[in-house]
């Protein structure tokens, strides 16, 4: 084996270790960034889900009122609807 190859291989091994160390640090930073982004997206998704749930609840309340109006016998449906239009929504 050529005696000059030994120092070259030593330097090459050191350079490879440095490159992999830098790449490992970059990967760790990238992974932390992705984890932070995942947490932000999860929080936004949870907030949207809560808004949708509240909206669905309001719609269900309105449907229950309409069902009550339609199923109650002897109620003037048109008058009841007009009365509900004037009432504030909760």
Tally of helical runs? 2
The largest pleated sheet is described as: none
Order of helices and strands: HH
Helix content: over 70%
How many beta strands in the DSSP annotation?
0
Report the portion of residues in β strands: under 5%
Span from first to last CA? 87 Å
- Please compute the radius of gyration using only Cα atoms: 34 Å
- Uncertain regions: pLDDT < 50 for 5+ in a row? none
The number of domains is: 1
Counting helices, strands and paired strands, the structural category is mainly alpha
**Rounded mean pLDDT score:** 84
Shape: rod-shaped
Keywords: Coiled coil, Membrane, Transmembrane, Transmembrane helix
Transmembrane segments: 6-27
Coiled coil: 42-69
């Amino acid at each position: 084996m050529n005696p000059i190859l030994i120092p070259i291989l030593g330097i090459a091994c050191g350079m490879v270790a440095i490159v992999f160390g830098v790449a490992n640090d970059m990967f760790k930073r990238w992974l932390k960034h992705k984890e932070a982004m995942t947490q932000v997206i999860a929080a936004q998704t949870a907030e949207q889900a809560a808004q949708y749930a509240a909206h669905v609840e309001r719609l269900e309340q309105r449907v229950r009122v309409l069902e009550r109006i339609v199923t109650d016998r002897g109620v003037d449906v048109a008058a009841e609807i007009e009365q509900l239009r004037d009432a504030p929504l909760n």
